[in-house]
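Quick one, T. Sequence first:
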Amino acid sequence: MGVARDHLPEARSAATIALISVVSIIGAGVGYPLAALLAEFGGVRAAYGLGLFVTAIAFLAAWRSMPVAPEGRSAHVDVAGALVLAGGLFLVLFLASETSLWSHHLAVVVVLAIVAVLLLCVWTASELRSKTPLVDVRAVRHPAVAGANIAMFVGGIGMYLLLTLVTRYAQTPHSAGYGFGLTTFVAGLVLVPFSVLGFVAGKLTPRVRERIDAPLLLAGSAVVVGGGFVLFAAARSNLAELFVAMGVLGFGVGSFSAAMPGVILAVTPKSETSSAMSFNYVVRSVGYSLGSAIGGLVLAAGTGHLFPNDGAYTTAALVGIAAMAITTMTSLALARQRSPETNPTAAPTGAPSQGRSSR
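Structure tokens:
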């Protein structure tokens, strides 16, 4: 996104950045069934091997094709800051996923939580002192950027919550009294409408953005995702209804992802594009992971002898609706703001305009 903003004309870069933001949605629709197919025939290691192979190709492509930083701008990467941030986030996500620790080893949970908070505090302090920070924390404090990240975090929880609910529901055997007993591969194909409509939404959003402000698009997109939850909660008796719910989710996620850069970059200087948007992606990833964990917790609480009760899925859907309602309200609050800083090349309040890292 930073390269697109640096090297493309403004009109073209906006559409390109929106498309880049949606690309991961397309990858999900391909990656899930492909990884599932490999897992069925070659085991889990084959599926992880595919992930390693694709990641290596992406790394090499970036290594060969990324242009150098513009003249006068540092391309230094804060490796130490990256490692500290990774350590803190790892502990947060580990505690969110290993729920059995909470009931059996509470003291360990408390210690790990304290360590995670300390690491994140150390990371924040080091970023504030660094001349070339991994993330310009001062810029994150801007109301528009902070609000967008909150919306992304809560919205990410809801978006991935429905994704995991649908795929798990589709694989539940008929003996549980619900579900379709699909294989992992076939259940992964349920994500095809998610990817297709997500791509369509990503292509349409830049055109709609010309008439509607990005925060309002975020709010509308969150409502669409909430509609996917309502469909899943009310109608999931046949496979076609799951396809419809996933299609609605994909359209909402696609438009939300494509509109998000417009909110953040409107108050972010070009030199901080990579920093601001990569931080937003970290926030989104944490939201996705927590959404998956919350879904697991709700289903576990409603589990009978072997499988969750059908009503547990409805309860989880209601949690998702609440998350998207919060996201909608946060986005509407952004739309009501009247910030004097509308120049995308001007530095946000408190952020230096020179000497910052573009990475």
